Amino acid sequence: MSPPRRQYTGTVILQLARYDEIWMEETFPNGQDGQLFELELVYFQTLGTHDKTPDGLKISGGTADWGDVEDRGNDKNRYRPRLQIKNHREQDDFSSMVELSQAFSLNGTALDQALDGLMDVDQWMRAYAMETVAGIFDGALDHAFHNVYWYQRPDNGLIVALPWDMDSLLQIPTNAPLWTNHWSIGKVIDRPQNARLFYGHAHDIINTTANVNYMAHWTSHYGALAGQNFAGQLNYIRNRSNYITSRWSTLAPSVPFAASSSNPLNVGAQSTATIQGTGWINVREIHLTGNPEPLALTWTKGTGANYANTWSTTIPVMSGDNAYTLEAYDYQGDLIGTSSINVISTSTNPVVDSLRITELNYNPGDPSTAELVVIPELDQDDFEFIELQNTGSQPINLLGTRDRKSTRLNSSHW
Predict the structure, then answer these.
(1) Fewer CB within 10 Å: C terminus or N terminus of the chain?
(2) pTM assigned to the model
């Protein structure tokens, strides 16, 4: 290996592939259609050349533009130096990068609204949670807002963050803050609903991988392969994860998973009920018992909290006094809590009154040759279907709807 500087004689990172077209296509639907940009600093070489002539080899070093990602107007050329377009260069389309950069200059709810439908916030929070747990120095949470690719998915238009050049891992002090507000990504994380995700992902990463019990095997294994002692790295992982865990009591004090709405909750003649409750950072999804589909949740910051620890969801309810059990699942899909609430409603049941089965295909024929060319794995069972029709005049919420005589037919299949 030929290093950029003579003093670089230690361990190097050998990459098999980067975020190229093959990676995009294998990772996302029609991935090559998405746009990829590299966020990097602008370096000014001030140390001259090896032979002091204009044509000589440039000596690495000098200064850099450490500026933040921000609104620089509508001219795409103002963004071009920091955001290097990596594919589809002939299109020269910077519109999504301009929109994202301008969003970073906003604050509060305006920032939330600008990022909605533009940034995959959950993915960004996991990416940067990984960086803080791994103690990465040369990244947006500490040193500089760079060393990341931004990729706009072609299937949903959301921009994801793809960190790279992470050879500076395990380098920040083990008691360093989880993030700083040096750069605009800090205020994105600092939004209550995003802080919840950031903490939740960090908690999950520590519990699953960034801990001594898990990493001891790998430091021993790769230490033996490389002929090196990785005890220092393992000790760093221990100290960093212990420090972050010790901060939960201040950053995200624990709250129980529980419905906090009145119990019983009387909704009168309404066919839906809005239920509120609390949940800690380890609550990833909430389900109604027996339903595999997660409920749509709105997380907000409770009184005196530093993060969004209060949830709200709306569920369809049946007429009468009925008990509903809510189940909380963590980031690994494990059940971690339940809470029950009774809801009283005098509404009619639109599912019973207006939902009808109008067609049933229970024994379809084999797929055609043309269909198998497109999807070779098809078989006749893939063509089974049940057609439902709403014969009423109002929309029907199918959440929780099931055929009581069938263990296979429920709303998760519709």
Answers:
(1) N
(2) 0.84
